[in-house]
Specification:
InterPro entries: DUF2642. This protein is about 10% helix and about 45% strand. The protein is mainly beta. It has a single domain, classed as SH3 type barrels. Strands 4-3-2-1-5 form a five-stranded antiparallel β-sheet. Strand 2 and strand 3 form a beta hairpin. The model has no long low-confidence stretch (mean pLDDT about 90).
Length: about 70
Amino acid sequence: MNGQPQQAVQLRSAFDPYVYQTLMSVVGKNIVVQTTKNPIQGLLSKVTPDHIVIEINRTPFFIRIQEIVWVSPS
């Protein structure tokens, strides 16, 4: 290349264990999630460290945890 040593790429992601644990406690329940764009209401079907899956009329919606402002049971 240009004689420079190659450096390893490091990926970083914000992980909030408190939000993750709170979301895990309401899996299978109806919730309202306020995102940075709009609120979404539906059944919380899955939680991972970086996103959640909310089902609305059997349609899955994937929401990045970084985009969540607040969560409330509905």
